[in-house]
Amino acid sequence: MRRLRVAILGTGNIGTDLLKKASRSERLEVRLFSGIDPDSPGIARAKEAGVPTSIDGVEAVLDAAAELDAVYECTSASAHSANAPRYEQAGLLAIDLTPAKLGPPVVPAVNLEDARGAANLSLTTCGGQATTPMVAAVNRVAPVDYGEIVSTISSASAGPGTRANIDEFTRTTAAALSAIGGARRSKAIIILNPAEPPLLMRNTVMCLVDGEVDRDLVADSVRRMEAVVREYVPGYRVAAGPDVEALADGRSKISVFLEVTGAGDFLPPYAGNLDIMTAAAVAVGERLAGPA
Fold it and tell me: What is the largest CA-CA distance in the chain?
């Protein structure tokens, strides 16, 4: 069985959760966990697990490039923008968990095969990972003229990067609904909910299509897509729907309501918005490793 040899750059919450998932995978071999903070709890956890570590950041990754196939970028959009050309020059595939958007956007359940061969793969946003599959599921049986999603996440699971880039989140997610999901027009909204105890990630997906639709076909497509996503995000589920409503203008409105519970590997279960990113990252790496 071929294993993809990977490095993880970024030792914060995302990088540490990804480390736990990737270390459990039979298709991935984590050869380096690198950051710049010597006091990072993530570094300590990696050492305890026997994973090679470094506090030399991207330089350590590049020094080890000959022994690697890919690097997971878990830093920031600005850092990845600076690092990406160096990865490509070193022959490393970059799997990007930041909002940098330098490579084609990828949602494993929908379009990974289309992006094979690119030097840089963008995992878009947590909202994009959660909702784009449902837009794509509707679109394959009834072309979507307009797709709109609302992602509600716990305020406790939104770090400073998310808070500083809300507008970028909405634009990137909306772009994924069209570029990957197939919606002709799209819109995304994010809500940070401060409720205590923290609530799970919840997503509302609304699609407008021309004319009447076959409710059974839509429901079947949605359920099949749910099953595909659950293969790598077990906590992903359709909480309600799909609901189909005939509108007065002759169009149909299709609504799907989603819930994402995190696996609790390192991040708390309510942080499904973060868990879906690390789970998608592992799924991409495993599939790029090739057949078992």
Answer: 63
With beta carbons less than 8 A apart as the criterion, state whether 225 and 272 touch: no
Distances in whole angstroms, Cα of residue 180 to Cα of each of 7, 127, 139: 27, 13, 10
Give residue-wise pLDDT tens across range 20-66: 999 999 999 999 999 999 889 999 999 999 999 999 999 999 999 99
End-to-end CA distance of the chain: 5
Assigned token pair, 155: 């305020």
Mark whether 207 is an active-site residue. Answer: no
pTM over 0.90: yes
| CA atoms within a 13 Å half-sphere pointing along the CA-CB vector of 125 | 28
Domains of the chain, earliest start first:
4-102 (3.40.50.720), 126-270 (3.30.360.10)
pLDDT of 1 over the 70 cut: no
Which 8-state DSSP code applies to residue 75? S
* pLDDT band at 291; cut points 50, 70, 90: low
Among 126, 144, 199, 238, the one annotated catalytic: 126
